[in-house]
Amino acid sequence: MKSRLSKFLVIKRIDEKDYFHSIEKGKDMSEARSSLLEKIETYTNDSDTTYLMFPMVPYEFDANQKIVVPKGTPMCIASVA
């Protein structure tokens, strides 16, 4: 039986501004974060960039280009050390 994968919104934060980066799939947020970290480490040399991950929820960017998600939305942070 196939396990259903969830989708997670990945936001890239550079110089205090947020940008849509990608959609990552995983059984849960932890698995999706691990997958994202592998991709980041493999394809970029971007140690100053932080990635924020949220479940797929309605979102927008405010006037300061910061992501706004519904209150109480779970989040995790991923960055290359």
SSE string: EEHEEEE
Structural class: alpha+beta
Q: Strand percentage, roughly?
A: 35-45%
Query: What does the main sheet amount to?
Result: 4 strands, antiparallel
**Global shape:** flat
Question: Count of helices?
Answer: 1
Strand order of the largest sheet: 2-1-3-6
Mean pLDDT: 90
Describe this structure in words.
A hairpin with a 2-residue loop joins strand 1 (6-14) and strand 2 (17-26). The protein has one domain (6-79). It has 1 helix and 6 strands. The chain has a 4-stranded antiparallel beta sheet, covered by helices on one side. A two-stranded antiparallel ribbon has the order 4-5. The protein is an alpha+beta fold and 81 residues long. The model has no long low-confidence stretch (mean pLDDT 90).
Helix and strand arrangement:
Blueprint: E1 6-14, E2 17-26, H1 29-43, E3 50-55, E4 60-61, E5 67-68, E6 76-79
Antiparallel strand pairs: 1-2, 1-3, 3-6, 4-5
Give short descriptive properties of this protein.
single chain, 6 strands, four-stranded antiparallel sheet
Give a short synopsis of this structure:
This protein has 81 residues and is an alpha+beta fold. The chain has one helix at residues 29-43, and strands at residues 6-14, 17-26, 50-55, 60-61, 67-68, 76-79. The strands form 2 sheets. A 4-stranded antiparallel beta sheet has the order 2-1-3-6, with helices on one face. A two-stranded antiparallel ribbon has the order 4-5.
